[in-house]
Structure formats: C-alpha cells, structure tokens
Amino acid sequence: MKNTQTIGNLCREVITGATNILFDKEATENANHKLLMGASLNPLGEVKSGALVPIDVKEGRDPSKFLLQSGDVVLLAKGSTPRAAIISEEVSKQNVVASANFLLLRPDTSQVRGEVLVAYLNSPLGQSQLAALSTGSIVTNISAASIKKFTVPVPTVTSQDKVAELFWARNHAYRDAIAVAEQQKIVANVCIENLMMGDAA
Predict the structure, then answer these.
(1) What are phi and psi of 34, to 5 degrees?
(2) Do 103 and 144 contact (CB within 8 A), yes or no?
(3) 8 A C-beta contact, residue 7 and residue 150
(4) Which of 51, 33, 46, 118 is CA-nearest to residue 89?
(5) Roughly how many angstroms between the first and final C-alpha of the chain, as a whole number?
(6) Domain boundaries, the chain
C-alpha cells in the first residue's frame, strides 16, 4: 500500500516567511542578509543566488527564525502559480531570509528528503493539489495551516535517494544543455554576420 503522509507530519516546522517589519529593502553597503523573492526561484526547483535581494535587518529584530538552512524547502505560496525549491548549502551560507510570499518547510530528514517534497510539489499532480488549496481569485494564497494538511506520497529511503540523485542530475544536464545551446547561438550569429558582411563587400 502506498505510504502517504501530511506535510505537517513530515516537517519539523512549517512557517510563513518574514514580513517587512523585520527588514529594510533599502539596504546599505554593509548589508549582511539577503531576501528570497519569487524571482529568486528557477524552473528547476532551485534558488538563483544572483537573484537574491540584499537587505538590512532592522535594529532589535531577530531574523534567526526565518533564516534558510541547507535542505529546507520553500514554497512560493502567493501569486499566480505556486512553486517549490530546495535550499542548497551554498544559498544557506548567505544569511537568506524568506519573504512573506513564501512558506518555509523544514523536513524531518529521518522521514523525507527535501528533494522529494520539491519534486512532488512541482509535479503536475502536486500543482493540481496546490491549486485546490489556493484562495483568492487574482492573487492566490496558500496558508501554512492548509499546507500542513497537504498529503504527499513518501517512497522508501532507497527510492528517495534515487529521486534526489535524479533531481540533481536532471538539473545539471539541463544547465549544460542550455550552455551549449547559448554557445551555438553565439557562433551561428557570428557566422551569419560574417557571411552577410562578406557578401555585401
């Protein structure tokens, strides 16, 4: 029988990201924190480091509750399309705070790997289930209370390891393919320009 569990049971913590009471987006040159925004997520379920926004944490405020850790899962819960991403070790070292548009899921790794949650939440079936949870007609929203009741299939440990391996292998292959395609486009553009200018001469 398929093992299904609620996210509330699979995660040690499920919270909404930080509001602007915590931080100031008009960051100084010495800003030592960064903010996770919707634009920070790529289509592969990862965070783009270059798209994180520098912020200053306001005096007297403690950001520790919202700081992202390696293996955390973030779900963009406000907007037109919910999307999930896993937090890498590289991102976790940058003092990144999730904005209030996100839900922060901290998996209990003895039960589930973050890659498994991300893969399912971003799958067609997961997206369909998330759409059913969303409230609001234009700007949709998924609450922390509702995501805790969200059920996901939990594979065996061996299968979870394979999911994680395939998750990262797919992402690396995709990025490599895009890099090759971009290089080919540059070479083709140069050849076209040379041919055009040669014929014109």
Answers:
(1) -130, 155
(2) yes
(3) yes
(4) 46
(5) 73
(6) 4-154, 155-201
Amino acid at the residue 77: A
Q: What does the radius of gyration of the chain's CA atoms come to, in whole angstroms?
A: 20
User: Which residue type is seen at 127?
Assistant: Q
How is residue 122 written in tokens? 């971003």
- pLDDT tens by residue, 2-48: 689 999 999 999 999 998 888 887 777 778 899 999 999 998 999 99
Integer Cα distance of 164 and 159 in angstroms: 9
pTM: 0.84
Residue 14 and residue 104: Cα distance in Å, rounded? 6
Q: What is the CATH number of domain 4-154?
A: 3.90.220.20
Are the beta carbons of 107 and 71 closer than 8 angstroms?
A: yes
